[in-house]
Specification:
Layout lengths: L2 H10 L4 E3 L6 E6 L2 E7 L6 E5 L2 H10 L3 E3 L8 E5 L6 H18 L2 H12 L1
C-alpha cells in the first residue's frame, strides 16, 4: 500500500488529525487528542502501528507474518503492520477502524459527548 492511500484513509476518519510529535520520520494520527495510528513513512516497506484487542493482536500475529508486536509500543495492545502488499487493503482498513474505535470507546463519557457534539456541528 502506498503512503498516500493509507494517509488519505486515516485522515478521512472523523476528527482525525495528523501530527509529528516524535519527529519527521513518524506520522501520528490522533482522534480526540489520543493516538490511534503511527505510520513509519520512511520505512521500506511502509509500516503502521495500530491498537488492537490483546487476544486479537496475538491471533493476527500468528496468522500473518507481516503483523508483529508494536514497535516501541505496548506489545500487548499494539501491532506493527508491514504494508508491503501481502495483506489485503480492506483487512488493513478494518484494523485501522478497530484501532480508531478502541480509542473512541476508551474516552470518558464527558469527553466522548464533546467529541460527538463537535462531529455533529
Amino acid at each position: 500500500m502506498r503512503l498516500a492511500k493509507i494517509r488519505d484513509h486515516l485522515l478521512a476518519m472523523p476528527g482525525s488529525v495528523e501530527t509529528q510529535p516524535f519527529g519527521p520520520e513518524v506520522l501520528v494520527f490522533k482522534v480526540a487528542n489520543k493516538m490511534f495510528a503511527l505510520v513509519g513513512w520512511k520505512n521500506d516497506p511502509l509500516t503502521i502501528n495500530l491498537k488492537a484487542d490483546p487476544d486479537e493482536a496475538i491471533e493476527q500475529r500468528e496468522r500473518h507474518a507481516g503483523i508483529n508486536p508494536g514497535y516501541h509500543m505496548n506489545k500487548q495492545h499494539w501491532n506493527t503492520v508491514t504494508l508491503d502488499g501481502a495483506l489485503d487493503d480492506e483487512f488493513v482498513f478494518e484494523m485501522v477502524q478497530t484501532s480508531y474505535d478502541m480509542i473512541l470507546d476508551s474516552l470518558p463519557k464527558k469527553k466522548r459527548a464533546e467529541f460527538d457534539a463537535q462531529m455533529d456541528a
